[in-house]
Design brief:
Blueprint lengths: L1 H66 L1
């Protein structure tokens, strides 16, 4: 009887560990998703800033040429 109880307990522990691992993986996945989203947002912002800066520089050059 004790052997059966022990095996059942071990099985429960294994299942518990599996659940913990799954929860940890899900949490890690969420962190990865958040990091990816943040990186994408930062890259987009940088690209927009660069494009705006280049456009502004081009406009300034055009204005200078027109004034001359």
């Amino acid at each position: 009887m004790n052997i059966i109880a022990g095996e059942t307990f071990n099985t429960c522990v294994r299942m518990g560990n599996l659940v913990v691992v799954i929860v940890v993986l899900i949490a890690a996945a969420k962190v990865v998703v958040v990091v990816v989203v943040v990186v994408v947002v930062v890259v987009v912002v940088v690209v927009v800033v660069v494009v705006v800066a280049l456009a502004a520089a081009a406009l300034v050059e055009v204005v200078v040429v027109v004034e001359e």
